[in-house]
Write a structure and sequence with these properties.
single chain; alpha+beta; 16 strands; 9-stranded mixed beta sheet; 6 helices
């Protein structure tokens, strides 16, 4: 059961100490809104099918670790499962795209929307000089990556590729990236968010992690990106064309499909 928020203390005039309006209407719980708008917190995104999630335990572990790091407290996985399950029931969905947001004070929000079908369209990436702060946390307030991602799309690309000034590759704006040298899948070793899809794939494929730079791109045959919505091949990065290797992608998709589904 969600604990109701404590009302803001009133001033001597009777007006709450924190008063907020949105589109001209007063907010019922200004303290809650202030927490949600603070930009300090973290989240996870998952695809739910028939009330089940691939890598659910990994999602719960990540939420707990980040909550401990940001707020010096744990996050009970059973409570998260109950909150997501209740939100799905209220929304009348067993197939969904769900997100769990965690804020200071242990506030936990769940969003549920229609499921995202996998998009396996080859992606064109535009490199930008930017690394996310505290990249190991799926944190809120990702203005930089959103800015670069939108700029890449306006320039005719599908996604931004985040790199250091010397060209070292970290991750996509909202994806992990992996390269194929004909023998192994190479995940860049630069600081990045270890996405759940990446975590499910790496042990199921011949994988290694090492430094990768833009200058290394011609040495790779293929690449692909992963996130909570699925996996897609990469057709080019900036002006470097990459082979969309269907045999490789079939192998990658099969490895991901082999990951078990866990009941909420």
């Amino acid at each position: 059961m969600t604990t109701p928020a404590t009302p803001a203390a009133a001033s001597p005039t009777g007006t709450p100490a924190l008063y907020v309006e949105v589109d001209g209407s007063p907010v019922a719980d200004p303290e809650l809104l202030a927490t949600l708008m603070s930009g300090y917190g973290h989240f996870t995104a998952m695809q739910v099918r028939d009330g089940r999630v691939q890598g659910l335990g990994l999602h719960l572990d990540r939420l707990d670790r980040a909550t401990r790091e940001l707020f010096d407290r744990g996050l009970d996985g059973g409570r998260v499962r109950a909150l997501v399950g209740a939100a799905l029931e209220t929304a009348g969905r067993q197939d969904a795209s769900a997100r769990v947001y965690v804020y200071d004070g242990g506030r936990t929000a769940v969003t549920v929307r229609a499921p995202f079908p996998p998009d396996r369209t080859p992606q064109a990436l535009r490199s930008v000089t930017y690394w996310r702060p505290a990249a190991h946390i799926k944190h809120l307030g990702g203005f930089g990556q959103t800015y670069h991602g939108e700029a890449a799309r306006r320039a005719g690309f599908d996604e931004a590729l985040l790199t250091a000034p010397d060209g070292e590759i970290a991750e996509g704006a909202v994806t992990n990236i992996a390269f194929w040298d004909g023998t192994s899948v190479i995940w860049p070793s630069a600081p990045c968010l270890a996405g759940i899809t990446m975590a499910l794939l790496a042990p199921r494929l011949p994988s290694t992690s090492r430094r990768v730079t833009l200058a290394d791109l011609p040495s790779f045959r293929s690449a692909f990106v992963t996130n909570s919505r699925g996996i897609a091949p990469v057709s080019r990065i900036d002006g470097v064309e990459l082979v969309v290797d269907q045999e490789l992608m079939d192998r990658v998709y099969a490895a991901y499909d082999a990951a078990p589904w866990e009941t909420l």
